[in-house]
Amino acid sequence: MLHHRRRGACRSGFPVSAACCAHDAGTPAGPGPVETSTPEARPPWWRDPALLPSAASGVLLAAGYGAASVGAVVVATVLHAAALAAGAWTFVPDAVRGLLRGRLGVGLLMAIAATGAVLLGHVGEAAALAFLFSLAETLEDRALNRAEEGLRALLTLIPATARLSTPAGEVTVPATEVRELDVLVVGAGQRIATDGVVVVGRSSLDTSAVTGESIPVDVAPGDAVTAGSVNGAGTLRIEATADGRDNSLAQIVALVEQAHARKGERARLADRIARPLVPAVLIVAALVALFGLLVEDPATWIERALVVLVAASPCALAIAVPVTVISAIGSASRSGTVIKTGEAFEQLGAIRTVAFDKTGTLTRNEPTVVDVRTTTDVSPDDVLAFAAALEVTSSHPLAEAIVRAAVPSGPPRPATGVVEHAGDGVEGWVGGQHVRVGRARWVPVGDGWRAVDGMAAEGMTVVAVEVRARLVGLVGIRDELRPEAADTVRMLRDQGLDVVMLTGDNDRTARAIAEGAGIADVRAQLRPADKAAAIEELRARGATAMVGDGINDAPALASATVGIAMGLRGAAAAVESADAAFTGSDLRLIPVALAHARRGRRIMTVNIALALAIIIVLFPMALFGVLGLAGVVLVHEIAEVVVILNGLRAAGRPRSRRRVDSRVAREPVSA
To answer: Is pLDDT larger for residue 129 or for residue 438?
Structure first.
């Protein structure tokens, strides 16, 4: 008869379309009082020097209208000319340089329109065009800078210097000069310069800026720590596991810098429309002016040609997608999600099925003794002690779990004559008694098969322990489900998504884990190639995301519509094959990221539709003289500002992220 005892789990240069002007990036201030390499901060709009030309143009334009209203025509003309010069200074030089290099941009259309208006004697309208266009361009620059700040802020998380412990004492060196195996001394409130393992000290770390996890994490000797985390009250000595230039935070920055290397479907759509539209608008305007010559009314039709230039210019269309993508990817990076490309971001918003690997993704990847069943005359602690005596020299994950479970009862007993049988188990002598530990099919279990089957049905791997040719106990080991796994699956289902588990584990163990997570569709005993084939099958039904962290997940990650790697310190092959990576370990970041991407995708669609609608509506009104130059300029530039502001909405945190933060705040967090 076997008795059992449950045991607690053991701890263990963004490419904006050529249709628009180039943008200079601003940079943010570093966060908090900790020492950082902080780039220059972007000033508030009322103190931004870049806005001075537009502001001067606006003041001069208003003064000119004031002078005209009292009959001072010459003064009004001079003021309008000055307003035109101030506004044109912000875009005409770039337009001319672009033209000399063979690039036709929106700035060129505006320069031609303003020049034509002056030649026709409409200096006031030309000044209004220059003022509004320069203002819109400056606001666009600020919008892109603001969106990019979320990406550059990652760079400020690395401190400028690091304190090292050396045989000669403590020395301070540039953080970039830290090398693997150096021992860092990190005081209270300081940032960690590179990835490492705590060797001395206990403290708590604020990892929110890196992983998006809002609750401090307790760390002690043996715990891994991440570059950019802020130390709490205790002093830590940390052995570096990565160079200062090649840590996990540097990987995040490198991935984010690639975020726009490939453009998404909507970005390509905007480019396909905007790039040929500029020369097309020039041709149409020329034809309109030519028509005026044919009907012997050149003044009227040349003016309409200039209005058409402005009405059909695709600046709003060109900026519709980039400002949204940059805003959304920057926001995601601050919440612990690194999305490598704009294309991946758009595809993330179209996902219909999410496939999870089991080991290390849905589970902790830390096999733990969860059940010990014994005969009447042997205690669970004795069973573990016998097993640990043989397993202490083995590097097998199950052996490590047994040794960890036995440690509270004392150090493992000495064993002699230990022989390991690959794939079966290990045998040897402990205290003069012959002991065998291994698979139930290798160690005879007699009538204990019912107990073995019951434990296996609960997702355990069963290790039998035999002493002097008699079965004394069964040890149940399980890779425990992450505590947030069921919540994650529930959140995905609430979003209308299908959830699938793909694993190389046996079917019975896989189904036990899947049941705990709330996943019905389970595909077990899959090799890496089988996982990739399963992903291809799921993709045939709709866009599919694959979530994994191991080398064996790399083919499936590469085959998925979007591959998602859990943790940048997972297998390098998995991270390289993935389209997105999570810097933290909380699975609930996945539904948050999907909701964020869907929202960004909707914003992009609205922006493109709005930009196209403006061209479609304004063009005939300009062609038939319904609106003059001033009216078209005003409507066009207001529309561009609306598109920019709408794109910046993509930087907001989704409601699901706030719900996750509130849930995490109520849960205990350990390293």
So the answer is: 438
Distances from the Cα of 158 to the Cα of 1, 50, 177, angstroms: 60, 29, 12
Closest CA to 513 of 370, 351, 305, 319: 370
Boundary (domain end) residue, out of 464, 481, 498 = 481
Asked if the structure places residue 349 within a domain, the reply is: no
Residue 634, CB-side half-sphere exposure with 13 Å CA sphere = 7
Instruction: Name which of 362, 363, 341 is nearest 561 in CA terms.
Output: 341
Q: How confident is the model at residue 473, as a pLDDT? A: 93
Residues 6+ apart with CB under 8 A from 483: 667
Q: How far apart are the first and last CA of the chain?
A: 39
How far apart are the C-alpha atoms of 570 and 566, rounded to whole Å? 7
Among 151, 153, 147, residue whose Cα is nearest residue 325: 147
The token duo for 517 is 């997570």
User: Whole-angstrom Cα distance, residue 575 to residue 550?
Assistant: 9
Where b means 16+ CB within 10 Å and e means fewer, 514-536 reads: bebbebeebbbebeeeebbebbe
Give the pLDDT of residue 254.
Answer: 58
Q: DSSP assignment, residue 283?
A: H
Q: Residue 356's pLDDT is what?
A: 94
Q: Which of 481, 516, 545 is the last residue of a domain?
A: 481
Mean pLDDT of the chain: 79
What is the Cα–Cα distance from 573 to 565, expressed in whole angstroms? 10
| Strand arrangement, sheet containing 580-582 | 337-339, 580-582, 562-566, 544-548, 353-357, 498-502, 521-523
Asked if residue 368 belongs to a domain, the reply is yes
Residue closest to 228 by CA, chosen among 30, 29, 39: 30
Give the separation between CA 360 and CA 153, rounded to whole angstroms.
Answer: 30
CATH number for the domain harbouring residue 436: 3.40.1110.10
Instruction: Indicate whether 664 pLDDT > 50.
Output: no
What's the sign of the alpha-carbon dihedral 274, 279, 285, 287?
negative
For the stretch 272-309, pLDDT in tens is 666 677 788 788 888 988 888 888 788 788 888 888 87
- So which residues are the catalytic ones? 357
Per the structure, the complete domain to which residue 409 belongs is given by 364-481
Whether 316 has a pLDDT exceeding 90, the answer reads: no
User: Which DSSP string corresponds to 443-470?
Assistant: S--GGGHHHHHHHHHTTPEEEEEEETTE
198 domain residue, yes or no: yes
Query: Can you say how many angstroms the Cα of residue 296 is from the centroid of all Cα atoms in its chain?
Result: 60
> What would the two tokens of residue 298 be?
């050149």
Helices within 375-501 (DSSP H only): 380-391, 397-406, 449-457, 485-494
Helix axis angle for 248-257 and 123-152, nearest 10°, is 150
1-57 pLDDT, tens per residue?
Answer: 454 444 333 323 333 333 344 333 333 333 333 333 444 555 666 677 878 888 998
Q: Which residues of 221-250 are buried (b: 16+ CB within 10 A; e: fewer)?
A: eebebbbbbbbbebebbbebbbbbebbbbb
Question: Is 225 contained in some domain?
Answer: yes
Considering only CA atoms, which of 303, 256, 321, 259 is closest in space to residue 19? 321
The CATH number for 186's domain is: 2.70.150.10
Q: CA-to-CA distance for 606 and 266, rounded, in angstroms? A: 11
**Higher-confidence residue: 222 or 207?**
222
Domain count, the chain: 2
CA 237 to chain centre: 30
Q: What is the mean pLDDT of residues 660-664?
A: 49
- Please name which of 526, 227, 470 lies closest in space to residue 356, comparing C-alpha atoms: 526
Residue type, 217: V
| In contact, 270 and 320? CB cutoff 8 Å | yes
